[in-house]
Prior knowledge:
The chain has one helix and no strands. By secondary structure, it is largely without helices or strands. The protein has one helix at residues 8-11. Residues 1-48 are annotated as: Disordered.
Amino acid sequence: xxxxxxxxxxxxxxxxxxxxxxxxxxxxxxxxEEFDTKNPQKQVKxxx
Length: 48
């Protein structure tokens, strides 16, 4: 038969390494206390 389909493995290019930013953990970790100044529920209310 002249139109024999090729196997799927022959059609596809070889696998390449994939990189995304989610797996890269560069830098230092932050502690939750660093964000207390921006959290409105943890702000100390001033009595004027």
